[in-house]
Amino acid sequence: MLAIASVPIALQPVYAESYPERSIKIVVPFSPGGPTDVVARLIAQSLSSGLGQNVVVENLAGAGGRIGAKAAASAQPDGYTLLLGGTNVNAMLGALYKNLGFDPTGSFAPIAAICVDSMALAISPAVPADTFEQFVHYAKNNPGKLKYGAPPGIYTHFAGEFFKIKTGTDILFVPYKGGAQAITDVIGGHIDMVFNPKSSLLTHFKAGKLKALAVTSEARWPELPDTPTMMEVGVAGFPKEVWFGLLAPDGTPARIVGQLNHAVNEGLKSEEVRTSLAKLGIEARIGTAQDFAAALTEQVRDWKVIVDATGIKVD
């Protein structure tokens, strides 16, 4: 009896100490090419080197991130299935959906933040406006004629809805499966406006393919010093940052969480990763698992205000 009773106790440390023994999968709950996917592939390469095992990215897109997030939450808590999450799936879904089948925060163990981003309001060059004020004026004079695009139920969608509320404009929402296609269509003039993060938009702004009207960050982007912040154009309330980070299913041993946190942070210190993030215009965020958990708690609070303001709820 004593021997049998000791088995579960003995297995746990041995199991954790031998980690990792095989490939690790990072679930990205969105389509390839978007900011979450870009960050996942960047950190996967770094983790592969740091942990000595292959780290692969699996895109499980659909339903505003719910499909991939639920799959990750339901996985064995052994450190071999992880989620690239953050603002989208961990901070927003709980305010939007009543019956997810998982808890966006409680079903996961935060491992480490990876980076923070901020958004910009971008419009097509075909729109006859060059400033935020001109665009709002044009939209008010053409109610229902302008269109903006985003995948439904994620932060870029709610940024567009919040913008409409704050400016009193009537702009049609066009749903997309992925943010990359929405950007392609606004460049092509098929829609007129998008909210998207710097990591997705900066190269298009520099190339003159899109007009930048305002950014959501607290300070102006160094790369676009003439583009004002939302606060400067008189629109308050936008969350200033969008977080990306790595999470594991709840119940993952603390030793594995700590090992992964260390590997992520070491990767973020490398010149290669920092250079790659700098090219995207985003900032690495090194810290403990507890730091990331606290940031997500703040994001949950901030984005609930936005979701509640729009009045959008899904059963």
Q: Kindly report how far apart the N and C termini lie.
A: 49 Å
Counted by DSSP, the helix tally is: 11
Identify the strand order in the major beta sheet: 2-1-3-10-4-11
Question: Main beta sheet: strand number and arrangement?
Answer: 6 strands, mixed
Query: Helix content range of the residues, please?
Result: 40-55%
Order of helices and strands: HEHEHEHEEHEHEHEHEEHHEH
Q: Provide the β-strand percentage band.
A: 15-25%
Mean pLDDT reading: 92
Protein structure class:
alpha/beta
Total beta strand runs: 11
Rg, Cα atoms, Å: 21 Å
- The stretches of 5 or more residues where confidence is low (pLDDT under 50) are 1-15
Q: What does the overall shape look like?
A: globular
In short:
With 315 residues, the protein is α/β, with parallel strands linked by helices. It is built from eleven helices and eleven strands. The longest helix has 22 residues, at 289-310.
3D structure, described in words:
- This protein is an alpha/beta fold and about 325 residues long.
- It contains eleven helices and eleven strands.
- A six-stranded mixed β-sheet has the order 2-1-3-10-4-11, sandwiched between helices. The protein has a three-stranded antiparallel β-sheet with strand order 8-5-9.
- It is globular, with a radius of gyration of 21 Å.
- About 45% of the residues are buried.
Q: Which structural traits does this protein have?
A:
315 residues; alpha/beta; 3-stranded antiparallel beta sheet; 11 strands; 44% helix; disordered N terminus
